[in-house]
Write a structure and sequence with these properties.
single chain, 307 residues, 0% strand, mainly alpha
Length: 307
């Protein structure tokens, strides 16, 4: 017999899958025409690299949960993270986190998961913002790009040491009339290990650029020099999408921001090409999220452990 928490988790999960299916169905003709002439080997490799970057993020999420006093097996953390990526496509920004909180029945789990998600969001935004600006700046000066990249690392490390997420969750719980000390446990310990943050920053930047390049080269035959700016615009568009709370997973926002960047910066390609890049990039990302969630599901069914 399923508990109420498990029923809510399943509803959110399948609602997310259904929403993605509708999006794919509406644009499948355009996507199919583009993929017909694509280099499938490189496209598959780009997805593998993209999923690898998601695994890195999931492992970093494991570190953040541990930082906020919630210790779970890695397989459970991967399940929370990757299934939560699907739930975020349900309109509204809270469903991924709600899925995660309803999936863990431990004292203080909800506040720890919420605090870890705030940390992950802030660090991810700073990492991608620095990477996007650095890539765009590389067209002006490599020295400037390196300075932006290193400054981004410094700011990200500072943000990782902040205790604001724990205080914010404590404040919310206090407004709800809940005992934060009893509910959240030892959130934000005084000493943080910086190495996971530095590794996350470096690996996400490396894998992110590699994945985008392989995808753009496979579908559009662009050289690396041609796509550096496009990758920067796509990453900055992702950051913009995070801030629009009404759009599920920044749906439509990222595409609009990317097209605006490409048009304003005069990349030398038509608006139609920019639109195609934006659409392909979106469905490429959705495919990775669905694929990664499916791998986690099948792997958990075997009883084996993820890294």
């Amino acid at each position: 017999m399923l508990s109420n928490r498990q029923i809510i988790s399943l509803i959110l999960l399948f609602a997310g899958i259904g929403f993605i299916a509708v999006l794919i169905g509406r644009s499948w003709g355009q996507i199919a025409a583009l993929l017909a002439s694509a280099n499938w080997a490189l496209l598959a490799l780009s997805c593998v690299v993209g999923i690898a970057s998601m695994v890195v993020t999931s492992l970093f999420f494991y570190y953040l949960l541990d930082k906020h006093a919630l210790r779970l097996p890695t397989r459970d953390v991967h399940r929370l993270f990757f299934y939560g990526q699907i739930a975020k496509y349900v309109p509204g920004k809270i469903w991924g986190i709600l899925y995660q909180t309803t999936s863990v029945n431990q004292k203080g789990a909800s506040s720890s998961i919420a605090a870890a998600n705030i940390d992950l969001m802030v660090i991810s935004i700073l990492t991608n913002l620095a990477l996007g600006i650095a890539l765009v700046a590389s067209g002006i000066s490599m020295v400037l790009a390196a300075m932006v990249f290193l400054l981004g690392l410094y700011v990200t490390v500072l943000a990782s040491r902040s205790i604001l997420s724990g205080k914010l969750i404590g404040w919310v719980l206090s407004k709800l009339g809940r005992n934060n000390a009893a509910d959240s446990g030892d959130v934000n310990p005084p000493t943080n290990n910086l190495m996971p943050v530095i590794l996350y920053y470096g690996m996400i930047c490396l894998l992110g650029v590699m994945a985008y390049y392989l995808m753009l080269h496979a579908v559009f035959s662009f050289s690396f020099a041609d796509v550096v700016a496009y990758i920067g615009y796509l990453i900055l568009a992702w950051v913009a999408g995070v801030f629009l709370f009404l759009a599920p997973a920044g749906m439509g926002v990222r595409e609009l921001v990317f097209i605006a960047f490409g048009t304003y910066m005069d990349t030398g390609v038509s608006v139609d090409t920019l639109v195609i890049i934006a659409v392909v990039s979106r469905f490429w990302q959705v495919f990775q999220e669905l694929g990664a969630a499916a791998v986690v599901f099948l792997w958990n069914r075997t009883g084996h452990h993820f890294p």
